[in-house]
Description:
Blueprint: H1 6-15, E1 23-24, H2 25-32, H3 38-46, E2 60-61, H4 78-85, E3 90-91, E4 94-95, H5 98-101, H6 105-113
The chain binds a DNA duplex through helix 2, helix 3 and strand 2.
Amino acid sequence: MSNDNFFHRVYEVTMLIPPGRVTSYGAIARYLGSPQAARMVGWALNSSGSCTHWVPAHRVVNRNGLLTGKVHFPGRETMKELLESEGVKVEDDAVVDFEKLFWDPVRELDFDQNPPKPF
DNA sequence: GTTATGACTGCGA
DNA sequence: TTCGCAGCCATAA
């Protein structure tokens, strides 16, 4: 959209995550076309501070629903607090009902842009 | 210019 | 079952 930068893509997708929902690095990477580039997603979020827009990085967790990136937040409980403040229950650094709250950009965005064909 | 690393994921032994 | 390795792309040094 704005730029072809991989980082910016991550920012946009991450910012599209509805409140109270979470997604995984792999889901975003997969939406970008490189499921195995999930590392880059985390790296992008790490640089999210360089982005002029606020990026809800706390809504992005690993495939297991663990808040692996919480260590990069100002506070140890910052990520948890943010998620809980949005209605997401977090227990032991893991998102409760992760698969329920899971928000897949490929499923939500691509689905809307590309209506499913009558299979 | 090259080299190393990173908030991950999937598969093999 | 758990443990280990390879792949991916971009940034930083």
